[in-house]
Backbone:
C-alpha cells in the first residue's frame, strides 16, 4: 500500500518535480550501500580464508584418505586423516541436543503462544532471552563440573568418562532451547485467530486446537527453527571442547570422550598445530566442511520457510 | 494446507468430556518451560556457590597466575573484554545500522543484488563462531598482518555480530509505520531528511535494544578468540589496539583446562562476573524495550 502511495508521482504538477539532482542524497545512498556490502565481503573473506589452505590440504592428503578411512589424529605421529570419527561425534552430539531441545522448546513455545496470559509472557520471555544469552563457556563449565559428576552418581552403570558426549550434548540441547522456543513461538503467533476460532466453533478443545490447528499451520516456521537450531548445535565449540573432550575414537557410545569437528578446530587452532604444517591446514579443511554443512542447513531452512509458508491475511 | 478439510479430523476435533487430558497437556507444557527456567536457576546458584570464596577485590585487582591460583585474578581479561567491546561497538554498530537503513529504506527488492545481500546476511547469522575465528586467523591476523592483537579480535567479533545488528535494526526500522514517512515526504522533506529526522528517532529504542543484545553476544563469545592466539594466560592489560590481549570467556576456558581445584573456583568466580555483566546488559535492553516501545 505504502509503495503505491510513494510511487504515484503527480505527473500533472510539473513544478513539484525535482528541479536539480540531489548529490547529497545520492552520496548517502552510496554510503549505505557500502555498509550493506560489508556483509558480502565477510562471506567472500570466509570463503577465501578457507579455500586456499583447503586445496593445499587435499593436494597433500587426498580426498580418498579424508573420506575413506576412520582413524582421526592429524596431531599424532604418524598423523591420520580419516574424518568420519569427528563427523560422527558432531552428528551424535547434535542428535542428543535435538532430542533435548525440540520437545522442551516446542512445548515452551506452545505454552507461551497459546496458554500464557500477556502478563505471564512478559515475565517468561525475558527469562528465555537470558538463557539464550548465557555464554557457551559457562554451559561447558557446568557440564564438566556439575552435570557429568551428577550423571556419574545417579547412573553409575553408564560408565561415563570424565569428559563425554552425553553431558556435552545435553548442555548443547539446553543452549538451543531458546532458539527453538522463540522462533517457533513467532510463527505460532503469526497464525491468525480465525483458525483458532474456527476450531473452537467446531467444538475442539484448547489442546486439540493447539496441536491439530496451530502447530500444523505454523509448521514451516517450526521446521525452520529446528534446522537453525541443528546448525547452531553442529557448530557449537566451547561446550564440546570443555565437556566433550578432544580424544577421537570411532564410536557411537555417548559415554565416551569424543571430539567434534568444532572441537578439533579449537584444539588445533589454539596452538597445537604449527603454522604451515599439514595439521595446520587440516583446520581449514574441517572448517570448510563445517561451513558447507551449516550453509546447506541454513539454505534448507530458508527454502522451507519460503516454500511452505502459509500466507494469511 | 488441509487442516480442517476432512470429516475425520472434524470428528477428532471434538473433545467432549476430556478435561483430564486437557489438564495434563497444560501441565506438561508448563513443566517443559519450568525445566528450562529451573536449569538456568540451578546454573546460577551453582556458579555463585562455587565461586563464592573468590568473589572479592583480589579477583579484579590481580592478574592471572599459574603458580598462585588462590590469589590469581582476572584483570587482564576484564580489560581485554572492555577493549574488544568498545571497539566492536564503534565498528559494528554504525556499519550494521547503516546497512539496515539501506535494506529497509532504499533497496529495491526486485533487484538481484539486494536479494543476494539479504540472503547473505541471514546465512552469515548462522555461520558457527569458530568459522569466524578461522576468518580472523586467515584473513585479518595473517593476510592483513594485523597479528594477534586487540584490533584483530575486535574486527573478527565485529563481523560476527554484524548480521545480528543488521537484522534487529531492520526490525526496529520496519516497525515505524509508512504513514510517518509519507507525511514527511508530503511536507517536502527529501528521503534522507525523512529517515534522519523521522524514521531513525522513532526507531532508536528498538535499535538500541538490538545493539545491546548483539554486544552481549560478543562479550560471551570465546570460540573465535581461541583461534586468535588469546588462549594463553596473558598477565598484563592491553595498552592499545595493537597490543596482545585475552578476554574474560577465554580466560575462564584456560582456568577450566587446568587440573587444580583452585582454578575451578577461580573459573566459577570469573563466570559470576561475566554473568553479572551480561544480566545487567540484558536488563537494560529489556527495560529499554518495555519503556519506549511505541504502539502506532
Residues:
Amino acid at each position: 500500500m505504502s509503495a503505491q502511495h510513494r510511487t504515484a508521482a503527480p505527473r500533472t504538477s510539473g513544478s513539484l518535480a525535482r528541479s536539480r539532482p540531489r548529490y547529497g542524497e545520492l552520496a548517502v545512498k552510496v554510503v549505505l550501500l557500502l555498509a550493506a556490502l560489508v556483509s558480502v565481503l565477510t562471506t567472500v573473506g570466509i570463503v577465501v580464508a578457507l579455500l586456499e589452505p583447503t586445496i593445499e590440504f587435499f593436494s597433500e592428503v587426498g580426498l580418498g584418505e579424508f573420506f575413506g578411512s576412520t582413524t582421526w589424529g592429524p596431531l599424532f605421529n604418524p598423523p591420520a586423516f580419516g574424518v568420519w570419527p569427528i563427523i560422527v561425534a558432531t552428528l551424535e552430539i547434535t542428535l542428543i541436543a535435538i532430542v533435548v531441545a525440540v520437545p522442551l522448546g516446542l512445548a515452551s513455545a506452545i505454552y507461551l503462544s497459546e496458554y500464557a496470559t500477556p502478563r505471564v509472557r512478559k515475565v517468561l520471555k525475558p527469562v528465555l532471552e537470558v538463557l539464550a544469552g548465557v555464554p557457551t563457556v559457562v554451559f561447558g563449565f557446568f557440564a564438566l563440573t556439575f552435570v557429568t559428576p551428577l550423571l556419574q552418581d545417579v547412573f553409575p552403570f553408564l560408565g561415563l568418562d570424565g569428559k563425554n558426549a552425553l553431558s556435552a550434548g545435553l548442555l548443547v540441547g539446553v543452549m538451543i532451547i531458546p532458539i527453538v522456543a522463540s522462533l517457533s513461538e513467532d510463527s505460532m503467533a503469526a497464525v491468525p485467530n480465525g483458525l483458532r476460532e474456527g476450531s473452537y466453533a467446531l467444538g475442539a478443545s484448547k489442546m486439540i486446537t493447539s496441536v491439530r490447528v496451530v502447530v500444523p499451520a505454523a509448521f514451516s516456521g517450526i521446521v525452520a527453527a529446528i534446522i537453525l537450531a541443528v546448525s547452531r548445535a553442529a557448530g557449537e565449540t566451547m561446550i564440546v571442547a570443555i565437556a566433550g573432550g578432544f580424544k577421537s575414537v570411532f564410536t557411537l557410545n555417548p559415554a565416551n570422550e569424543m571430539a567434534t569437528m568444532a572441537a578439533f578446530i579449537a584444539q588445533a587452532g589454539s596452538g597445537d598445530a604449527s603454522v604451515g604444517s599439514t595439521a595446520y591446514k587440516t583446520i581449514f579443511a574441517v572448517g570448510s566442511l563445517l561451513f558447507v554443512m551449516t550453509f546447506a542447513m541454513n539454505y534448507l531452512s530458508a527454502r522451507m520457510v519460503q516454500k511452505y509458508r502459509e500466507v494469511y491475511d | 494446507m488441509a487442516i480442517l478439510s476432512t470429516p475425520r479430523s472434524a470428528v477428532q476435533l471434538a473433545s467432549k468430556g476430556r478435561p483430564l487430558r486437557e489438564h495434563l497437556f497444560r501441565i506438561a507444557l508448563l513443566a517443559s518451560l519450568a525445566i528450562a527456567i529451573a536449569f538456568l536457576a540451578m546454573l546460577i546458584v551453582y556458579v555463585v556457590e562455587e565461586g563464592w570464596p573468590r568473589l572479592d577485590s583480589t579477583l579484579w585487582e590481580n592478574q592471572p597466575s599459574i603458580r598462585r591460583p588462590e590469589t590469581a585474578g582476572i584483570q587482564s581479561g576484564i580489560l581485554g573484554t572492555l577493549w574488544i567491546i568498545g571497539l566492536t561497538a564503534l565498528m559494528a554498530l554504525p556499519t550494521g545500522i547503516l546497512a539496515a537503513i539501506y535494506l529497509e529504506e532504499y533497496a529495491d527488492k526486485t533487484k538481484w543484488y539486494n536479494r543476494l545481500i539479504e540472503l547473505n546476511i541471514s546465512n552469515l547469522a548462522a555461520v558457527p563462531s569458530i568459522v569466524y575465528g578461522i576468518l580472523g586467523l586467515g584473513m585479518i591476523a595473517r593476510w592483513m598482518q594485523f597479528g594477534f592483537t586487540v584490533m584483530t579480535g575486535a574486527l573478527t567479533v565485529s563481523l560476527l555480530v554484524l548480521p545480528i545488528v543488521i537484522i534487529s535494526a531492520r526490525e526496529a526500522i520496519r516497525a515505524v509505520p509508512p504513514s510517518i514517512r509519507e507525511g514527511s515526504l508530503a511536507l517536502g522533506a527529501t528521503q534522507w531528511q525523512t529517515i534522519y529526522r523521522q524514521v531513525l528517532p522513532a526507531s532508536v529504542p528498538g535499535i538500541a535494544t538490538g545493539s545491546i543484545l548483539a554486544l552481549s553476544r560478543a562479550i560471551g563469545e570465546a570460540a573465535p578468540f581461541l583461534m586468535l592466539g588469546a588462549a594463553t594466560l596473558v598477565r598484563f592489560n592491553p595498552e592499545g589496539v595493537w597490543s596482545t590481549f585475552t578476554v574474560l570467556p577465554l580466560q575462564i576456558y584456560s582456568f577450566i583446562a587446568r587440573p587444580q581445584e583452585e582454578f575451578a573456583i577461580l573459573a566459577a568466580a570469573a563466570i559470576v562476573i561475566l554473568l553479572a555483566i551480561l544480566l545487567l546488559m540484558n536488563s537494560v535492553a529489556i527495560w529499554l524495550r518495555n519503556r519506549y516501545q511505541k504502539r502506532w
Residues 1-13 of chain A have pLDDT under 50 and may be disordered. The domain at 72-308 of chain A is CATH 1.10.3720.10 (MetI-like fold). Residues 23-60 of chain A form the longest helix (38 residues).
